[in-house]
Structure formats: C-alpha cells, structure tokens
Predict the 3D structure of the following.
Amino acid sequence: MESLQPPDTPFKIARKSVVVIFVRHRPNCEKAHFGAYHRGCDCPKFFRYSRAGRQRRESANTRSWASAEAHAKELEARLNGASSPASDSSTASPAAKHNAQATIAQLVETFITRKESENINAATIRKLRYQLSLFEQFTASRTKFYPSDITPQDVIDFRASWKSWGDLTRIKAQQNLRGFLRFSCDGNRQTVLDALGAIKQTRDGRERRKPKPLSETELKKLLAQVPKTFADEPQKIPLVIAFIKCAVSTGLACTDVVHLERRVLEAADGVLEIERRKTGRKATPRIDHALRDQLLTVMNGNPKFVFCHGASLPSSATGLWQTDLRQLFQDAGLWIKGNLSHRFRDTAVDFWLAEGCSMTDVAAMLGDTVAVVERHYADLASKRMADRLSKLPARTW
C-alpha cells in the first residue's frame, strides 16, 4: 500500500481574502436595530477582511451598499493578486494597475483639502464638495472607481444630469469638474476634457440677471412698509431703514453693508474706503453727512459694526439680513425672483449714471473692474444716455 504521509517538500494552500461589508449606523439611524449588515440605510459603509493573519477594517468611502459591493470586488481582486509575481505595466491586470492608484473618492477629498488650503471661502467649498460628491456617486453607479476608468461618455452623461440647474450654476459646475479632472486624470485627461464643450448662457438667464433698479416710487413704498413688517420688533425699524438707505446710497453688496464698520464712517469728506469681503477690492462710495450721522446713531449693541451684532458668523449674519429683506419685499409687493438685496446696488448705479457719472467712476465706487461694470450695466447706461440726449437743445428754424 502506498504511504499516505505528506511529501518531504511542504506546501501551503493559498487562502483567498474575502472582503465583508458592514455598516456603522449613525446614532439617529432608524434602521440601526436591523444590525451591521442591513442594506437599506444611508449610513457609512466599511470593509472587513484578513491580511497577513490580521483582521483589518477600512472605510468604503460611500453610503451606498451597491457602490460598496463594487468597491469590495475591486479590493478583493487587489488583495488576491498581491501575492502573484510582479509584472510590467504592459502585462499587468487592470486590478494590479489600479493597486497603485488612488480612487476617485480619495482624490475628491484630496482636491477639496487643497482648495481649503488656498483659503477658498466656506460657501464655495460646500458647493464644490456637493458637486464632486455627485460625480463620485455617478461614476460609482457605473462601477468606475479610478480616474483611468473615466471616459468622455461618462462626463457627457454626468453633465446631462444637471437639467434642473440654472445656466450659471452649470457653467460654474463644469469649471469645477474640469479642475478636478485636470487634477486627478493622467493618461485620459485630454480626451475627457475635450468632451466638455462650452456651456452658453440662456436667454432667460440673461434676462433674469439684468439690473432691476427700484424706482423712486418703489423705494418710498419699501421704506413705508418697514414699520408694518417689523411692528413686533420696534427696535429693528430704525436699523432696517438705515440699512436700506445705506445700501441704496453706497451700492455696497449685502455682506459689505452688514459688516460696515463704524470707523469707516469717520471720513471727513464722506468718501468711504471699504475692502469688499468677496473680492478684496477697494470700494469708494460717497455718502452725505446726514446719512453718516444717522448711521452713527444706529444702536445694535456692537461698538465695531453698524448693522452686525458680532455674535454670529459672517455668513450667518448676512443670511439673517437677507431673510428679513425677503419678507419686507414680499410684504411691500415688490418681490421678484433673484437676489433682492442686489436691487439696492442696481438702484445706486442707476442714480449715479443719471447724474452723469462715467463707468470708471461707477467701478471705483462699487469696487469692481470697469469691464465687469460695463458688461453688467450696459443697458442702464444706454437708457440714461437716451434720457440725456432727449433733453439736449435742438436747433429751431
């Protein structure tokens, strides 16, 4: 009988790694009682697997179970191919090639971290994170987890999903997407970038963004509405009236008016020097002495700011003022779709043009470039020029 003893040369049976998906439920998750393997919630998904005799856990970088399953298959392929002999790049399997790459989800986080280090404001970072998270989820739904997987068809189809967004939002979203693709893609970079052609502004969008200054009648109606809208908050009435007069007189953006500092009002000639919060450019509007005295007497409990109490974040303070102004415009029957506080800026420019100010003067007072002012206020300038020409003397016979 043959011996059943093992041969002298020992051998090992290779054990394949198995990646298990589990969920870490949020404290308020309604599905937590179903356990760590429940598929029906949007809590973060994680992987568990063994490697070199040790159990490991890592984030799946997704809240979708379907996406996590696709990630798990890729991870299993990499783990089980890791012990095979190394091969050159021409013969390596797709899983082996991906082994040295960062995933789209990881690169999104790296890209956003880089933008944060460039001192990009929080509102822009929120939009960027939202838009790129949509892209990561879109590619994951097509089981594409690496930049090298992205094709021109993918970016075209992703852009086609923005149907409900406004034209400027789509234009800016494409700029953000192109920036991310330049950052993350390598061999396929130019092909996917070339697939994203220019997005044009729509006629409706251009019409909606045209300047809409308040007439003198509308401005008086709005000021008369202030005591009625804020009847339950009498301390707010003089503050809101002063805010409107300041915004209409200076043409400052809402956030710049909200954070107007008292020291700025000390200019003897009435020419204010204000560094715009959004662009950092200097605006130099002029106010008369009566309005300056009124602003200095406004009481809001803060020794530094005229309209901001200083107890909240800058973005929060601006948001609170915009909420109040929206209610005021609605009560006065003057509400229109768009940025209502920007109508004060339009009203200031309309007044300056009527008084004969040049575009260069207007740009200096607004803290904008001449090119931006000419592009945005060309229609107002044409209208005011027509009004002036109609009043010029004509030769009589």
